[in-house]
Task: inverse folding
């Protein structure tokens, strides 16, 4: 039985300086992660991460001021037990947002601890691995400026994506939605031209459109053979999602801003998506993503977890992705089609690349699933100290 004797939280921040970039929604002048470290009465340590998009401080407060005192009072801190109890006690005010992100961090750390206690990777505890490494797709092709200067920007974009291909990737997701459609169409054409027809491409609008404009942009993506269109419209616009999905050939993806099985029940139930993208650090941790995977399976939908955090977030996603079945299952699985794939952010993030004593790296377009107990990774405490604020 796990009993927690200590809860520590860390807000890590790295300014990006000249490497700052933009999506359709925001400027990214820095990268931030909220980490939690749990220690058991036996002295074992587990790590988790919570949240991805917003400020880390509210998530920290949910842990320190509300959830940690309850966790410390539980004699049995098994992940499933803790999830049910903490969710029930915060349901009336915390069904989404920082509370669920805080619960995600605690849940991941508890699974890390359970694996450490049993000497087993999380992937084995949740059913076993279909694969020892996971095919990766790169996330890049961000905006480096909010103005569009074709001479400057298209060359720079082409060079950056060519660089990702040189790392061994065969699939890339680029950003769209910040600029008018005619200008983004030039960026899309540049990436296709530079990487060639065989390269698998996807695009992420971060919900920059309404249904009408998303359909117009989606036709451009269809023309260039893109395989999925992520967050075409705002997550609340279920009707818009369904309309876009009905009118386009390429798959519609979404779900990084959904919380728990209840959010995915509604997204899937309204016919919004072909691919669901739960973020394990956002949607409720490993315990909850297992329920979401079951839900998706009942609807024959693919799952490509959203991954954008530190090395802890990548490790958690690798453990889960190694256990995902093919969707749909066939005798001749096709990489990047029905074989699972992991998102591998390629923008500069020292919290991803430097946090772990053994970094998670690309090898022939794949990332190996760590074999050690729990998450299978060791956190470099000097790096935690270097980037911890406050
Ligand atoms: Mg996205």
Result:
């Amino acid at each position: 039985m796990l009993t927690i004797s200590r809860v520590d939280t860390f807000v890590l921040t790295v300014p990006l300086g000249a490497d700052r970039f933009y999506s359709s929604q925001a400027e990214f002048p820095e990268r931030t992660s909220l980490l939690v470290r749990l220690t058991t009465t036996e002295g074992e340590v587990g790590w988790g991460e919570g949240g991805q998009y917003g400020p880390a401080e509210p998530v920290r407060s949910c842990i320190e001021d509300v959830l940690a005192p309850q966790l410390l009072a539980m004699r049995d801190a098994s992940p499933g037990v803790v999830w049910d109890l903490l969710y029930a006690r915060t349901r009336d005010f915390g069904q989404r947002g920082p509370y669920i992100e805080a619960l995600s961090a605690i849940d991941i750390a508890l699974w890390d601890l359970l694996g450490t206690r049993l000497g087993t990777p999380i992937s084995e505890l949740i059913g076993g691995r279909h694969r020892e490494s996971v095919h990766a797709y790169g996330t890049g092709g961000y905006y480096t400026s909010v103005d569009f200067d074709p001479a400057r920007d298209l060359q720079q974009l082409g060079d950056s994506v060519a660089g990702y291909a040189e790392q061994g990737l065969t699939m890339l997701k680029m950003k769209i939605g910040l600029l008018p459609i005619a200008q983004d169409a030039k960026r899309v054409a540049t990436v296709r031209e530079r990487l060639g027809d065989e390269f698998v491409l996807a695009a992420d609008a971060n919900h920059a459109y309404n249904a009408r404009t998303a359909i117009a942009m989606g036709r451009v993506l269809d023309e260039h053979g893109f395989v999925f269109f992520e967050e075409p419209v705002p997550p609340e616009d279920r009707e818009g999602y369904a309309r876009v999905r009905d009118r386009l050939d390429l798959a519609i993806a979404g779900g990084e801003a959904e919380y728990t099985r209840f959010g995915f029940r509604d997204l899937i139930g309204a016919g919004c998506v072909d691919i669901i993208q739960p973020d394990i650090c956002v949607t409720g941790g490993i315990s909850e993503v297992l329920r979401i995977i079951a839900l998706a399976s009942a609807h024959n939908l693919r799952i490509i977890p959203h991954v954008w955090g530190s090395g802890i977030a990548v490790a958690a996603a690798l453990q889960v992705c190694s256990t995902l079945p093919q969707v749909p299952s066939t005798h001749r699985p096709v990489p990047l089609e029905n074989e699972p794939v992991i998102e591998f952010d390629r923008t500069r993030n020292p919290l991803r690349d430097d946090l772990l004593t053994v970094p998670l790296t690309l090898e022939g377009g794949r990332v190996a699933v760590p074999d050690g107990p729990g998450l299978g990774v060791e956190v470099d405490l000097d790096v935690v100290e270097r980037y911890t604020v406050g």
About this structure: The chain has two domains: 4-120+380-387, 124-368.
